[in-house]
Amino acid sequence: MTETQRILIQVRELLQSFETSVESVSVREKVTALVPAFDAIRELGKSLIPNGLSLSARDRLLAYFLLYPRCVLREKELAIVAGISEWARRVRELRVQHGWRIVTGVTVGQMIAVGDLEDLGIGDASLSVNDYMLADNNQDRDAAYRWNIANEIRRGSQGGQDKILKYLRANLGKPVSGEELSYVAQSSEWARRVRELRTEQGWPISTKMSGNPSLPVGVYVLERDRQAPSHDRRIPDGVRRQVLQRDGYACRNCGWSHDMWNASDPRFLELHHVIHHAHGGLNESDNLVTYCNVCHDELHKREKSG
Ligand SMILES: [Zn+2]
Ligand SMILES: [Zn+2]
What we know:
This protein is mainly α. It has 12 helices and 8 strands. The protein has 3 domains: 1-48; 55-227, no CATH class; 231-306. 47% of the residues lie in helices and 9% in strands.
């Protein structure tokens, strides 16, 4: 007999004995009579995870997330698997201290609201407020270290947007999660602020939707510590995506693409106006070409000198 079957029998017996207490007039007697069955059902939930009864709540949650990566999991499921009322705190520990990329419906909703996440790539864009998803089944080993940086920046006196930029710059070239940015900024408007940094201030911040389709859902990367030239800002996201897609997410001059990224030569992709914006060139796809920042710089230098 499996552990689950054994507990199930116990639950049935406890519910049977509860039936006799239901006749009681005392509310308190009925409530206390239900306690053992309630506890047994919790044990039943824990036993559903392989070896679940010998694991901690946190490890049961992790085991469940790893069984169903990139699936939307409802909070009641997590409560059952964890078997404790403080399960949400354990999920947070997995995310923050242990670096598992668990995105919450709240964060995803905030990203969708500013247009940074249209296609979740999971065939289901309905990650609602109380849902969770493990976006990537590789553990991010630097998470605990980053957490210290996040706390330090969060305590500063700057505005939310400056804190976000500071945090991204401290993690140059590395993926950070929307959860982290939201925490650092202490604002539900964090996703909008990130978007402004990218579109209005020209910081090369990539997401799955804007610039780098190989990134997991809910992740941002500041690709280089430099703002794009002002003539290349304000290209609508839809157009940007269209051009990048058309050019195969690679530099049209040298062929550089994100899978060639390395820390000693941290390139990123920019869009160049064939007819310059200042000369009436439009922000439309047939006036835009994808270049890596190195080729883009060279092109402008040549134009200046020639
Ligand atoms: Zn290039
Ligand atoms: Zn240009």
